[in-house]
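Follow-up to my earlier ticket, as requested here are the two runs.
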Amino acid sequence: MIITSFLRQTIAKSHQILYPATGRVTQTIRVPVTCLSRDASEGVKMSTLETLQFDNRILRSLPIDQEKDNYVRSVSGACYSLVKPTPVNNPVLVSASSSAIKLLGLSPEEIHRTEFTEYFSGNKLLPGSVSAAHCYCGHQFGHFSGQLGDGCAIYLGELINSEGERWELQLKGSGKTPYSRHADGRKVLRSSIREFLCSEAMHHLGIPTTRAGTCITSDTRVARDIFYDGNTIFERATIISRIAPTFIRFGSFEIFKTRDSTTGRTGPSVGRADILNQLVDYTIQSFYPHIDSLYSNNREEQVAAFFQELCVRTAHLVAQWQCVGFCHGVLNTDNMSIVGLTIDYGPYGFMDRYDPGHICNGSDESGRYAYDQQPSICKWNLQKLAEALSLCLPEEGAKKGLEMYDSEFQDFYLSQMRKKLGLIKKKLPEDSDIVESFLQTLHETGCDFTNGFRYLNKIDLQQLQNPEHIESVQECLIQECATPTALAKSFKPKMSMHQLVMFQALQRESPMLLLQLGITSEFMDNEMKKITEIEKTKKMNAEEKIEADRGLWMKWFRMYVQRLLQEIEGNDVSQIMEIQKERLEIMNKSNPRFLLRNYLLQNAIELAEKGDYTEVDRLLKLSHNPYSEEQSTKDYDEETSQRNDGATGVVSNETCLGKYFCRPPEAALDLCVT
């Protein structure tokens, strides 16, 4: 029914990092020259704060809540509620991404104006802005939670830049909305810095994501119980601006859900098929215009094609996460983008030591959102979206989309892994075994995931028959392997031995009850393996560990070298040199040198809480070129010195670079993000 080849072609064209959505803008938006400043570096006309070009189409296209007062309530028959941001005291700019700000058509020069922090903190509304909060539901940790919605985020409107691109702007942490439930609608400096930096870092890694324009803190204080132990502290209310083609998510389509058999909850607009159709039409017309036009005479095929393309986009997205070791942490249906972006950065993390069962979210007790579970969880979320769309999505179309998800994930993941390993000339059946064997060796040796891949670029194809050369590369990886102490520490189970024994008994007697608690047999097996690994590792001293690691890497490199020889088989010296050059270029663009590791983020947060924002800026700048071998903070340090006028001591380029690219210190294992 659906033309699969067409979908593949259109996805190849449209699956860019941020899917600029021009939708059905049928007339050219002409902006008076007097309203613009010029960005000298690119020769592009840019707007000022007062002359941004708003066109708030979503509020014209979808139903708005008729209640105008801002209080917590169930919102029926509407997709948005009009609400204004709550002002903060003395807003202060922590950091800004000029490249993200430019998406709005706003000149980066405007960042330095006093009014900038007033507008981007929510203290004042930009001219043309109409602020609102979005209503959505969600399956959280596998259970339908009913109405959720933008509890701390507020839509400011949609802007058209000089390229004709449409971008939605919202503030996160800007105060209470009808969807705030028991919360205060605020975010604090800790979580805001993490989301701001990771939004930009993911973009520069080449992974589809929402963007973040600014991070602004204030003197307004909010109460937080950080460790959930009754010890409340007061932290600074902080706001970030987020930018995306849209923030519509899977959960946006769940507001129509009928009563859930497990939780007994319904969506606030249950039975409103008219609004569901409005939302589906708006989404396809605005963000999948090629599908809208191709299937304009067949609605069922149109919705099926939309769902199938979303399945492919999501499969590619998750494959990219897996390839850089990114763990989202909270993959609920309300945190899944309808256009295939990474969205809502909370307790995320990039793996340091490779662990397929890595859990980045300290509150994910059952490991539902562990690293190796992400592909299956995203498919599960797509299944829930298919159920939400069942009134207009044919069953066969949904089934086809989910099948495409499986095949596209496997194909795209393997193609990316080949690039990471420098297998660029041939696609052989044994390649998947080489990938899995490499990952297994990373795991057994406790090798750093990011640096382990990066060091493979040291292999010279002309030196494959030289044992000393191969051994020198092996030694680089051995240096990235964990010590016995660090490895044992990393194997610490989520559950205590008492809990494990109790749940093992429950697993034998009532396995279905265990599943209802969100605990799978795989999770239990993984916990027991950790205990076994701890005991095994404790018996080793440092020298024995190094020798064991060397043996494991020698075994893998023998396999790898044989595969690389097949890459250059039949080529002369000059051709091998060209393959080596191409291989290095591809590998260096596929294996990042810099990632936002948790301990680097924590260091920046601790300094920022003392009023020093220089480390936030440094991490932002390093994130701009994550693949570069020439990465330097020299330019940044000069900028920081000027910005702070000597108020803070800037670490010299020579002394500060190392920690950003090396294996993290063992103390990083103590960090826990929830």
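Run two:
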Amino acid sequence: MANTPVDKNQKYDRQLRLWGDHGQKSLEASHVCLINASAVGTEILKSLVLPGLGEFTIVDDQAVSGEDAGSNFFLLQENIGQPRAEAAMKCLLEMNEDVSGHAVSSNVVSLLAHAEDFFQKFSCVIATYLAESVLVQLAEACDRVHVPLLIVQCCGPVAYVRLQVAEHCIVEAHPDNELADLRLDRPFPALSKFLETQNLSTMDNKAHSHTPYVILFHKYLEEWQEKHGTPLPQNYKEKRLFKEMLKAGIRTDEDGKQLSEENFDEALKAANSSLTATSIPSQVESILSDACAEQLSESSSNFWVLVKALGMFIAEDGCLPLRGTLPDMTADTQRYIDVQAIYRQKAAEDASRVLEHARGVCQAIGKQPTSITEEEARLFCKNSAFLKVLRTRSFADEVRKPEICSGEINSALDSESEPMAVYITFRASFRFYEMHGHFPGQAENDLALFKDVVTNMIREWNLSAPLAEKAICDMVAYRGSQLPFIAGFVGAIVSQEVIKLVTKQFIPFNNTLIYSGTNVFTLQL
């Protein structure tokens, strides 16, 4: 009996609700490279293969060992002696027929030396279990071709993840606490015209109790401005007074008892978050003044062209484009649809103007104007209040210029920070591997040798406080072991960061993430 084809919308239904069709298309167009099919590396790929990553490549010149088969769910006893890249690839591909996989049984050092452009084709590179000098070479190679790099290593119950990305521009940040963009302090003409048709005093009780609270806000703000001379309440005390005005507007029955008007209750609850002045967030102002938005060229990305166009729009209107979305609220269907249509129409007009500016900018710099689509401009304008640009320090600089982050490390050590102690021992383990060909604890007398490495690094970093003896001993005791359940947990975390990078949605962590067995910490070094 033939297999029935599965509809992709049904197969990926849950994730489509998170990042949408366009996010899924970005994921399916992505190509991720994993260096070394370690336990955590294959767990990362598993959590990318399942949601439909386009393709992956595993670079690994080692054969499967008995230890691999014991710690890695994607390498079996029967794979011992086989090329590790190929064995892991075959097992991972069984999880999703939509995904393509490739195995490269080569040494990464050889690729860096003889195939400089090898990493250019990838959307993201994930490196596991490499020596410090190799990590530096890889970081420089990825930096040159503007490919994000994630360095990942698990050791016993702790883990280290380092993100290096030269520039990552985010349009859809999906903020947790998104405030509605109602323009209460500056209603636009179409909205003002509609509001003139709404007379609360002449409505019957049913219409009064089903008036969308955005209309209530505008009506009572007109009264507020007449009494106080400001478009919005300015502080907590004034917001409390405004709420009293709203409460007084709730109708009463013949006995003087207030009627149940859920729309007013909603307005009172939403007042603090909704009564905010229309403004341009500081992070958006910073992006608008970024050199990349000022010094455009034919090779500039669409993001920076749209930022330039956004600046031109703001120069004309003094505010960001309208977002065009309304929160849910108690209302009769027709008026909610009418108000929603007014906001959407204004948002579409604003996006059209930004698109017009953007295409004009494209023409001026020799870029194809149609390279920016209406949908791209619409999405950009809808999220213009949440734009984000992430630029991390290069890993090579962190290694070669230890003084650049010694201040942050010193401060954390003075406060006996557990994550910082884990960070230092991981960094020391990379160097130990470089010097001795294995990770601390995998041979006799490693404790004394590892202490020497840690001591030398502390001296290089000019740290004022010594590292706790326990942190050093713990790293040696872990013997570079890869615990499957830790690898699975960390792999899931890192896969989410990869998805953020390739879909350009949500905000990745900045620089370094440390997992200490019970907690996850991020360090911005």
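The only thing I checked on run two: The radius of gyration is 28 Å. Let me know what else you need.
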